[in-house]
């Protein structure tokens, strides 16, 4: 037998190109299946509309569609249309508006606590201790008008007390129902967050909720590219922010524009401004008794995160449940520095400078 032997085989070598093509086909098939399942839940009207809209790859759904200038999931479009057709505001209504992952849960808790502080003066038995803020302040598009339903709002807000009806929305200002925009008395509170932190929070959140049928984790690089192109839920983010920002400049008594970072830095001053805007100002006695600080503590990220309802509870969005714990990650300012490289920081900084130029709206970059 020779001292050395050359062995040849005919087995196929799987090259990177082979793998990439196979993976792309697998992803495409999974996306097609997911899209079909999404479509089955839509009305015929919405299905026909989607066929006429521009679409791009989505973050947690196969595609996002450009509707009224913003990128939306199919079910969001259907619920926004239902909301626009059927909702009629009352003069005392309060609308809490945010772009996703900008402190929505926190804002809901704070406003609920401010408006209802006379009803629930004892913080030991407060509804926020046993209910997630999203259950106390319902979303217009994700809850009340989801799945093409038309709710009887008198059942949601019975007239047994004089507190205003309080709703939440991620809908951009131009797409709000007309009676909300036309009323001088309906109050809108908009909370925004530095786009750097909003992006990182969104990326983490989407990967937690990404359907198992869509393979793999949604990469930071892919998400960042889409974010900077404006292709993100209810984005472009700059158009969403500027819509409410410009309206707050025109009608400051109607729209209050708050920043997440400012509230983190000085919660007491911001809560005093918020309460006054809503028509529920803190009295001198309440300030002396530290009521503002108590509300801030009750609604703090740390307090809410440790509550059992927010650790093990579930909420319903459209026809699916998601775990409340996914709403609470870090809640800090500046976490983006742990994820974005210098090139990304430069790109997003330049984009923000370009889009916000001349508006008066700006954000600090660490």
UniProtKB/TrEMBL annotation:
A single Gene Ontology MF term assigned here is: sulfotransferase activity
Judged by the first EC level, this protein's enzyme class is transferase
UniProt EC number: 2.8.2.-
A Pfam family of this chain: Sulfotransfer_1
Q: Which UniProt keywords apply?
A: Transferase
Which residues belong to any copy of the Sulfotransferase domain?
Answer: 92-360
Q: What is this protein called?
A: Sulfotransferase
Q: Which organism is it from?
A: Acer yangbiense
């Amino acid at each position: 037998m020779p001292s050395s032997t050359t062995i040849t085989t005919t087995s196929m070598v799987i090259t990177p190109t082979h793998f990439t093509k196979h993976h792309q086909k697998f992803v495409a098939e999974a996306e097609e299946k997911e899209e079909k399942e999404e479509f089955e839940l839509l009305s015929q009207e919405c299905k026909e509309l989607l066929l006429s809209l521009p679409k791009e790859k989505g973050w947690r759904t196969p595609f996002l569609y450009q509707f009224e200038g913003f990128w939306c999931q199919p079910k969001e479009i259907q619920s926004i249309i239902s909301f626009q057709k059927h909702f009629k505001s009352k003069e005392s209504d309060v609308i809490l508006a945010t772009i996703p992952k900008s402190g929505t849960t926190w804002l809901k808790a704070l406003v609920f606590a401010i408006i209802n502080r006379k009803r629930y003066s004892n913080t030991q038995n407060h509804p926020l201790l046993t209910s997630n803020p999203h259950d106390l302040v319902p979303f217009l598009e994700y809850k009340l008008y989801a799945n093409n339903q038309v709710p009887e709002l008198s059942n949601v807000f019975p007239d047994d007390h004089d507190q205003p009806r309080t709703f939440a929305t991620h809908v951009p200002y131009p797409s709000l129902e007309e009676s909300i925009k036309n009323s001088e008395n309906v109050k809108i509170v908009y909370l925004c967050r530095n786009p750097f932190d909003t992006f990182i929070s969104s990326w983490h959140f989407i990967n937690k909720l990404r359907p198992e049928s869509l393979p793999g984790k949604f990469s930071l690089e892919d998400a960042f590219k889409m974010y900077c192109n404006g292709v993100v839920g209810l984005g472009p983010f700059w158009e969403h922010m500027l819509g409410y920002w410009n309206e707050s400049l025109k009608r400051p008594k109607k729209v209050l524009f708050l920043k997440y970072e400012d509230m983190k830095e000085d919660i007491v001053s911001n809560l005093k401004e918020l309460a006054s805007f809503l028509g529920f100002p803190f009295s001198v006695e309440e300030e002396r008794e530290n009521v503002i600080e108590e509300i801030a503590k009750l609604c703090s990220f740390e307090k809410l995160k440790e509550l059992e309802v927010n650790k093990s509870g579930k909420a319903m969005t459209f026809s699916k449940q998601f775990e409340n714990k996914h709403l609470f990650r870090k809640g800090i300012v500046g976490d983006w520095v742990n994820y974005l490289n210098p090139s990304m920081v430069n790109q997003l900084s330049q984009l923000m400078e370009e889009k916000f130029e001349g508006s008066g709206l700006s954000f600090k970059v660490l």
